[in-house]
Amino acid sequence: MTLGQKLKTLLKDKGMTQEDLAERLEVSRQAVGKWVNDKGIPEVGKIVQISNLFGVSTDYLLKEDWEEKGVMEERAISNSGYYVSQEMLDGYLSYSKQNVKQITGGISLFIVSNVFDCFEHNSMIISFLYWLTMTAGIIIIIWHFFQTKQYQEIKNEHLAFDDKVFGEFKKQQESRRKKYAVIIIVGVIILLASSEIERFFMIYLGQTACNVFGWAADTVWLALIIWAGMSMHIDSIIIKNTERTLKCGYMKRYRWIYMALPFTVAAVLIGMITNAWSPYAPIIILFCCLLVTTCKLLIENRGKNE
Question: Which CATH superfamily includes the segment(s) 3-80?
Answer without folding.
Answer: lambda repressor-like DNA-binding domains (1.10.260.40)
